[in-house]
Amino acid sequence: MPELPEVETIARNLRPKLVGRTILDARLRWKRTLATPTAAEFRRRIRGQRVRDVGRRAKFLHIALQDYSLLIHLRMSGDLVIRSAAAPPEKHDRLILTLSNGRQLVFNDTRKFGRVWLTETTDGVFEKLGPEPLGRAFTEQWLHTALRARRRQLKPLLLDQAFLAGLGNIYVDEALHMAKLHPLRVSNTVTGRQGSRLHGAIRAVLHEGIRRNGASIDWVYRGGDYQNHFRVYDRSGEACRVCGRKIQRMVVGQRGTYFCPGCQKLR
After folding, report:
1. What is the chain's mean pLDDT, rounded?
2. Does residue 80 share a domain with residue 168?
């Protein structure tokens, strides 16, 4: 699943191609792709809408239209591509938006898990999300207080989108290694100094991921090279770049988790 750096990269790539364009028509080819409204209402509302901006909130793409917000969550296999308006639909195309410049924006989703919302306000979709890890609300003090207020293992807590929005498996593992914190460490035992390290590590790995256009580790997301610079993720049995110990893999909360037993001791 694309995480914050990958979704941010997609938004940045789409912005100059979409801003200022008008959506002339919509073809929904898999009805469950659309979370809200109904297919007929979606088509009625979106026709004639001009794209004002393309951004991101957590792992959601946010396409700001003249009167509405078009929200897209790519989930496991979603992809957004720009094609010629004359191009025929492909097998896994779920939603096709015809644009005023002779192009079309296509939501392709092999596994059919992705979802699309067309809303007048983002509140109903975003209201349960935690703060943005690259936003102003995510301070060292906030993180320290939030960690101390909970008694949860760090890995599943950081994956919880209601706690902190945008992080996924890759960047949590990378940040915990940089901060020298074990994935099973209980949050309310993290000291102020360790919390400050974790805060800096989260921002550092996300900025680096964005700088490298995200990580391309399967057929879904392409174009990034952060996977060539992983500290621990997907490197089980390889030497830690810091201490030389072999990276280990375990399962935490049903998620494959990579860590260094030398750098990330469980005290």
Report:
1. 96
2. no
Are residue 109 and residue 178 in the same domain, yes or no?
no
As a whole-number percent, the residues of the chain with pLDDT over 70 amount to 98
Side-chain-facing half-sphere of 221: CA atoms under 13 Å: 22
Instruction: Measure the CA–CA gap between 178 and 239, rounded to whole angstroms.
Output: 15
Catalytic residue among 45, 56, 59, 115: 59
27 is catalytic: no
Residue 120 lies in a domain: yes
Q: Which of 69, 102, 126 is the last residue of a domain?
A: 126
Q: What is the C-alpha separation between 246 and 240, in angstroms, rounded?
A: 6
Catalytic member of 2, 5, 156, 183? 2
Residues 117 and 169 in one domain: no
Examine the residue annotation and report whether 2 is marked as an active-site residue of this protein.
Answer: yes
The verdict on whether 133 is a catalytic residue reads: no
Q: From the candidates 27, 83, 241, 255, which is the catalytic residue?
A: 255
CATH number assigned to the domain comprising residue 79: 3.20.190.10
Q: How confident is the model at residue 1 (pLDDT cuts 50, 70, 90)?
A: confident
How many residues are given for the chain? 267
Asked about 31 being catalytic, the answer comes back as no
Q: What angle do CA 233, 148, 152 make, to 5 degrees?
A: 50
Encode pLDDT of 32-52 as tens digits: 999 999 999 999 999 999 999
